[in-house]
Amino acid sequence: MYFVEVILPLALAKTFTYSVSEAEYHYIQKGMRIAVPFGKSKIYTALAIDLHQNQPLLYEAKEIHQILDEKPIVAENQIKHWQWIASYYMCAIGDVYRGAIPSALLLENETLITQKVGGFVDESLLTDDEFLVFQALQQQSSLRVQDVMGILNKKNIFPIIQKMIDKNIVVLQDEIQESYKPKLVRYIRLHSQYESNEGLSQLLEVLKNAAKQREIVLSYFQLSARNHNKPIVVKELTEASGSTAAVVKALIEKQILEDYFIQEDRVNFTGESNDALLKLSDAQLQAFNGIKNSFLDKEVCLLHGVTSSGKTEIYIKLIEDYLATGQQILYLLPEIALTTQLVSRLQAHFGNKVAVFHSKYNNNERVEVWNQVLSNSEKAQIVIGARSALFLPFSNLGFIIVDEEHEQTFKQMDPAPRYHARDAAIVLASFFQAKVLLGSATPSIESYYNTTIGKYALVELKARYGNVMLPEIELVDLKDKYFRKRMTGHFSDVLIDAIATAVSSGEQVILFQNRRGYSPLLECMTCGHVPQCQQCDVSLTYHKHKNELRCHYCGYSIAKPTRCHSCSGIDLTTKGFGTEQIQQELIQLFPERKIGRMDQDTTRGKFGFEKIIDSFKNREIDIMVGTQMLAKGLDFDNVSLVGIMNADNMLYHPDFRAFERSFQTMVQVAGRAGRSEKQGKVIIQTYNPLHNTIQQVTNNDYLGMYKEQLYDRLIYKYPPYFRVIKLSLKHRDFNKLKEASMWLYQVLFQNLGIPVLGPEEPPINRIRNEYIRTIMVKIPQEVSVLGTKKTIQKILNSFESVAAFRAVKVTLNVDFY
Fold first, then answer.
1. Distances from the Cα of 499 to the Cαs of 447, 506, 593, 682, in angstroms?
2. Strand 623-626 versus strand 595-598 pairing type
3. What is the pTM of this model?
């Protein structure tokens, strides 16, 4: 008896055993995909992780359906890394597999519906819907589930199909389909019989009355001469001759031209590599040598360099060193917007050795990058990507850079696996004995703490590149300005004057407001009613451009009301402000200037970021308004002024990291100013200019902020002194949730003997009609994290076995950031 152990792409914590023949047993390797039956009729793409001869005791092992790969598509170290993520972040291995692999490689059940052969159908007994499906099956042999939905214009079609199966009219048949299709490009060439000189004169004779066709043939010769006989794409030929595909088709039918296909990569970089030597400044050179020396005895090094100190040049130098050894390099970034800028910088230097991997790429493009990394291809020696690039099948990883390591976007919140890319990258590197460089102008408190206890090395870079001065920071007291009536909308006179001065000198301005939309709430002045989302416990945000109120949690939207829903009053006013409102006010203040906006609403679509960043870089936009997307390491050399519209709405979040995050965001936004010769200026508008954190930003005092926060963390039992695991419980019934969360809290409290907080109602305690309660478990440094997690898992297993609580969803967030 031979068996294969597989992971299924489902939220299941355990692996499953299937039986295989002896030949299959010797053919299958770890990391191959296998189609396996699971449940009554479903077939899934499983991943082989082990081969053995131990029969499962609890169930009869089913036979596999088919082997999908000729060689493994997942590396062994990768499977180890996935297992580490599943156990450390307390999630199902199936979730990690599903989240890690491009969905085009996870074949789905394309259920086909076909007419039963040889049965008689009495059409008079069919309902209207059944008759439509039956009629469609007369035209074509089979229909997919999606096709039936389209024909009937209904989502819930299973009952109709079920009735037709019961009436013996149709049968279901499952087909597993490969959804990745290679990109084929159509090329054209001259038929071989016309390639000689006689052939040419014969050809011109044939075409003497067909002017358009003759035009295409002449264009073909011109292109062929210009491209030095390289293959010619059909599209290129039609564009060059100003003709259409129909004329080309006519020439193919006459057997004058013939077409053929060549498989190509979807993502191709045509930039020439520039081997011009990078010149590092003295400070950069010192940091570069410091990092290399630290790698002799430490695996991880933190580069703490002020904004615009030239960290990227140091990264490029280090990448050069690792490329020379033939190893792969992974460069992680927190935001897709950043990859856009960085890719062009790295391609200018390394040419076609750079591959990019993030969620704006479509499925087929991701599969291509996956295959390039798997085969250790020249094209993917340097991989740049957001956190998902961590899951690529590296075989020879030598160096990982985590840029802007403090960013919260490195932590995946939903769905599972809820991993932190920075921490997971350090573990991945340890499997390859690779080195990790963390870079930031405002390191996270945990990383900085790790340097003080000797776990990581620390290299500091205190001067900006080219000795440019750090920006001058000016605080504006909004209380005082409103009192003296020196505000125009949300702009103080100081900020307006500074913007006017900057734009009249031909310089650009960035304004930061961490709220999208026009305003966070609409209020009735008569009765005080604020429109709320029907499914979540939040007020609806007003978007003026679309004239609608929208929920930023579930997407529910309604047209802007003209009367109050509660008292029918007509005096409705907006409270608070977002990026859209700032943009509107700027248009009135500076009507002749071009004003851009960068937030989630304007960067939808694959090239949303590129378009906005390019137009700002090319100085087509004078003033850019944006959310935190702007705060992340972008490099614009013509920005002389940065305005923070309201520093307070970041400070007062109910979150133990609020002050640390506010400091990081403000310093990062301020760092966008004055990145070339001239000293930049930053204006921070606030109601509380004497607040410690705002003073620390003004003085660029990272150490002051670090020490103050560390002292608070020790008193209130938070990281880095305590590990935090957050359990979130969700259910539609408020009382059942209350009872379940209380039960879970009491059992955790009795069994763990460490601080357990809760059950709390979070600030937003209902999303998509589900109420939420949270419980926090705080694990001190001296207590075993592994033992605590095992106990929590046992308690959760007994929680699920209580019938009354089975419907309550529990999600775990380890190292809750």
1. 37, 11, 11, 11
2. parallel
3. 0.82
